[in-house]
UniProtKB/TrEMBL annotation, chains A, B:
The active site is at 207 (proton donor). InterPro entries: ACT-like_dom_sf, ACT_dom, Asp/hSer_DH_NAD-bd, HDH, HDH_cat, HDH_CS, NAD(P)-bd_dom_sf. NADP(+) binds at residues 10-17. It comes from Jiella endophytica. Keywords: Amino-acid biosynthesis, Methionine biosynthesis, NADP, Oxidoreductase, Threonine biosynthesis. This is Homoserine dehydrogenase. It comes from the Bacteria. L-homoserine binds at residue 192. Belongs to the homoserine dehydrogenase family. SUPFAM superfamilies: ACT-like (SSF55021), Glyceraldehyde-3-phosphate dehydrogenase-like, C-terminal domain (SSF55347), NAD(P)-binding Rossmann-fold domains (SSF51735). Pfam families: ACT (PF01842), Homoserine_dh (PF00742), NAD_binding_3 (PF03447). PANTHER family: HOMOSERINE DEHYDROGENASE. GO terms for molecular function: homoserine dehydrogenase activity; NADP binding. The lineage of its organism: Bacteria, Pseudomonadati, Pseudomonadota, Alphaproteobacteria, Hyphomicrobiales.
Length: 433, 433
């Protein structure tokens, strides 16, 4: 048996404590699988005195994570502090500068600085592993980087935020409005007190930025992602989706188009019978379309201490086994510069819900604005007007494939025509064939 | 860049030719990813003169696969001949005896001789990789062996035979009978002229035997699998399943029970809303329940030249990158002896369809035989009798959880009572919660 792998862990919150506990509890299993012992020899966290459910005897304590990265007697460095900058980044850089492999669950760090860190790692003859950074326990990174390594990817997409999926699932299954579902998600610990990062689509965007790089061998470009959150989705939209044979999910999508890479995170209507549509609650899913494999789908827990710890441990065991593949699947010098496709060029079908004043000319305005912009309609449903005051009638349109630019122009013109009460609702349709 | 990896490929059918073509066509991509060139330096197949769509210049030809394994100038050996014994096995053993890593898509070889081969590999300081042997392009092996390496698995299950799933999907969607669907599957090349291996459940059993070993760290035991094929499934069963909120799939399941490991392949009713129920046509799926991750699901193409070649290439690239994990996820000496749970001890719900003569006492016989064996019923549906001659009425029962032993005794007694026309139909219900 080889000498044991000595780990330094910084950040001992839920995931970090879980990882340390599991290394203690499953020592025998882990050693059998990788042919060597794995031991935590150095730790650092905010509060030294907190009890964390594992035996800290024999572990060196460091008040400072960077100090541990620089001076700990370790063979691999595990960063579970989080955040794109500050101490997490400093500590990771310090470990890489020593040539020590880094395991991290930090999506923000990778999404913002992944390429620079991959270069820094390569310069020092080491790499970063980050299975836990995307889709929790689902082996999305390993699959993209290794199982698909001979494939050229056309599209990667998925449900990457459990909070949003929990809210949308409850809205659909129980007919409860967005605000009430969000409150429940907060009470259950699925959503933060400030839920913007999740429900605004930013969390999913961070994960997508990383997947996109692995999918297309391109540099990471978080700032190129078109992001729209779920807070504008109403029960009316959910009911309309059901009627039309769709379900609404916060989808993260990256695909290759003629003009570059299109990256977007937004609520989407997907066919109710698709496998992705069955992904409910806090479950995440990642799907990949590629030249050799066609379509594959991975689904599983997207968060949670044990699932995330499982992903961290899988990376640690790869390191212990001597398997440290290139951070982003390619040597960083071979990553393509990111070429951005404009969102206005996006092509697809659209669902549009309008509240139309019940008056002469209103319907002609809709028909004309669509026609002017070359948009053909697959279906139109007008419901009975609500006749309190000047009544409005809900009108639901589903378009054939068109462009984002055309839809935006049409909706802008429609709004100016003055027949609408409130802003038009628009949800993109993703045909998952 | 390291020296190139020299490959010997034996068997140049659809998959073998695909692999060689892709290594030629994607040479640059593959080299970038693994940091070294990959080149086929030796080949062997039945017919030397056949054109195969890749340039054989510079490749040494061997009439005999074993000769290639023993004498080829190669760093890794790729076996794509197939078959559990004979030349495939001899050649793999010869390569292992030289200490050369083996990549294979041969499920029969692994299912029958996996443990012996793993031992032989370990004795010679090398390993066998076999991603393509189970569920085609889905990274089931990599996920079980690496992503789940810190997990203890409770259950692994899936849809592992594309032919069966294609037939069952068409029966359901188009209301066409089993025989007609099988004929179409044969015409489309999804089923062999002798379809027994697929529709009898044996192909799925081979794949399950391998997954079970990886899941539980146990020795492989193909002969312990309870196997039942799909040929007895009728349109009536499909219609009843739909009505009851289920879909019928050929399911392969391995789980840990108090008395050992239960392995079974049989048609099962699974909840229509489950993700697995959406896996249609020739698509395969593998699901795993484990202590840390909970449930994860992988779905994708289970067969086809390109998808299988993709899996073979993923293994080849692991070898090129120097990553050759233990064949069965553990050193072979650490594999547990297989402890078999008897199928009679299986617990679950059952669907039973009877054709009952429309006469006094028939229903009492059903009720009594169930009660005698401690079986409680969740639902009973009796349809109107068919009144030609001595009419029979279809009766459909759904039981609460009971044992296989109880169901078998009850159905045997019922048959002896003489109120049934024909044999009872019985389909196990798998609650996937």
């Amino acid at each position: 048996m080889k000498t044991e792998l000595r780990l330094g862990i910084v950040g001992l919150g839920t995931v970090g404590a879980n990882v340390a506990q599991l290394i203690e509890r499953k020592a025998e299993l882990l050693a059998e699988r990788v042919g060597r012992g794995i031991r935590v020899t150095a730790i650092s966290a905010r509060d030294r005195d907190r009890r964390r459910g594992f035996d800290t005897d024999g572990m060196a304590w460091f008040d400072d994570a960077v100090d541990l990265a620089q001076n700990g007697e370790i063979d691999a460095f595990v960063e579970l502090i989080g955040g794109s900058d500050g101490i997490a980044r400093d500590a990771v850089e310090a470990a890489l500068d020593r040539g020590i492999p880094v395991v991290t669950a930090n999506k923000a760090l990778l999404a913002h600085h992944g390429v620079a860190l991959a270069k820094r790692a390569a310069q020092n003859g080491t790499e970063i592993l980050f299975e836990a950074a995307v889709a929790g326990g689902i082996p999305a990174i390993k699959t993209m980087r290794e199982a698909l390594s001979a494939n050229e990817v056309n599209r990667v997409y998925g449900i990457l935020n459990g909070t949003c999926n929990y809210i949308l699932t409850r809205m659909e299954k129980e007919g409860i409005g967005f605000d009430a579902c969000l409150k429940d998600a907060q009470a259950l610990g699925y959503a933060e007190a400030d839920p913007t990062f999740d429900i605004g689509g930013f969390d999913a965007a961070h994960k997508l930025a990383i997947l996109t790089s692995l999918a297309f061998g391109s540099e990471i470009s978080l700032e190129s992602i078109f992001i729209e959150g779920i807070s504008k989705i109403t029960i009316d939209d959910i009911a309309a989706a059901t009627e039309l044979g769709y379900r609404i999910k916060l989808l993260a999508v990256a695909l290759k188009t003629d003009s570059g890479i299109e990256q977007r995170v937004h609520p989407a209507m997907i066919p109710a019978r698709s496998a992705l549509a069955q992904v409910d609650g806090v479950t995440n899913a990642v799907a990949v379309d590629s030249d050799l494999l066609g379509s594959i789908l991975l689904a599983g827990p997207g968060a949670g201490g044990a699932a995330t710890a499982s992903a961290v441990l899988s990376d640690i065991m790869d390191v212990a086994g001597g398997f440290v593949p290139p951070t982003l699947g390619l040597p960083p010098s071979r990553l393509q510069p990111y070429l951005r496709a404009r969102m206005r060029a996006h092509e697809g079908g659209y669902y549009i819900r309008l509240a139309v004043y019940d008056r002469v000319g209103a319907f002609a305005s809709i028909a004309n604005r669509m026609a002017e912009n070359g948009i053909s309609l697959e279906s139109i449903v007008q419901r009975k007007a609500d006749h309190k005051g000047e009544g409005t009638a809900p009108v639901i349109l589903v378009t054939h494939e068109t462009t984002e630019a055309a839809i935006r122009l049409a909706l802008e013109a429609l709004s100016k025509d003055g027949h609408l009460s409130g802003d038009p609702q628009m949800i993109r349709i993703e045909d998952l064939d």
